[in-house]
Amino acid sequence: MTAAQPALSYPRSFLTLLVAGFLAVALPLAGALLYSAWNTERLAAQARNAVFNAAQAARGSRSLVNRINSIERVAQQYLVLADAELAADYARIRRSFKQVSGELSQLPLDEEQLVALTRTIEQEQRLYELLTAAPRGRPDARQVGKLASGLAESAYEVLAISYLVADREVEQLRRSADGVRQQAVTLLFVTIAVALALALGLTRVIARPIRQLDASIRQLGGADFARPIRVDGPQDLQYLGDAWTGCAGA
């Protein structure tokens, strides 16, 4: 004697069973699609941020180089003329220099880039202190020339920051794109496997009452009324099996 199969919990109608099966199979596919869309949006946001950082670095570096060139020129003129208007021009350019350098320091710079920017700011600070240390006298021309030349050389390092930032952002974006692509491939295989497993399981659940209906039709066609007709599944199919049982009993 074979053991009875455990009873399954079916919905009220066969249509509800089909809809539930479709939703169960579609759910992991929809989840994978939403996750892929979220990853794509995240990658797009990273790309926008990379472009913004690269543009900010390029604009800030060029602006800082222009300020450095202006500072060097005004410092050399002030060294010769010691004019108060040149001192005012230097102060105005210096305020702009500090603003631009502060904006650059807020960018995601690595240690080497940050050291170059910090060194440039410190050189400008020493030049300013040297020019304003003795307002009634003239500062040492050799020290001023040395600091001004060093500041001009630092301008090229500052200009290179924009290229380094752009290269680093592109590299990070490439790595992120590779990671998203690998995740998408893995998610695709996992989702397909889960969907196939669910489809196979639901096929067995849906096919069971269909097989019972087929067996019942064959039984009635063969005029076999000795065995009771039993149809499991949704209630509408069970009602159909009960109706055939009543016809067989009559």
Q: Layout of SSEs?
A:
Layout: H1 14-81, H2 84-105, H3 111-132, H4 141-221, H5 235-249
Q: Describe it for me?
A:
Helix 1 (14-81) packs antiparallel against helix 4 (141-221) and helix 3 (111-132) runs antiparallel to helix 4. The chain contains five helices and no strands. It is mainly α. It has helices at 14-81, 84-105, 111-132, 141-221, 235-249. It is rod-shaped, with a radius of gyration of 40 Å. It has a domain at 48-174: Four Helix Bundle (Hemerythrin (Met), subunit A) (Up-down Bundle).
CATH topology of the domain at 48-174, which one? Four Helix Bundle (Hemerythrin (Met), subunit A)
Q: Nearest-angstrom radius of gyration?
A: 40 Å
Principal-axes geometry comes out as: rod-shaped
Question: What composes the largest sheet?
Answer: none
Low-confidence stretches: 1-6
CATH classification class of the domain at 48-174: Mainly Alpha
How does CATH name the architecture of the domain at 48-174? Up-down Bundle
> Which H/E pattern describes the elements?
HHHHH
Could you say which structural class the secondary elements and strand pairing correspond to? mainly alpha
Beta fraction of the residues?
under 5%
First-residue to last-residue Cα separation: 30 Å
Amount of helix: over 70%
Rounded mean pLDDT score: 76
Number of helices: 5
* DSSP strand tally: 0
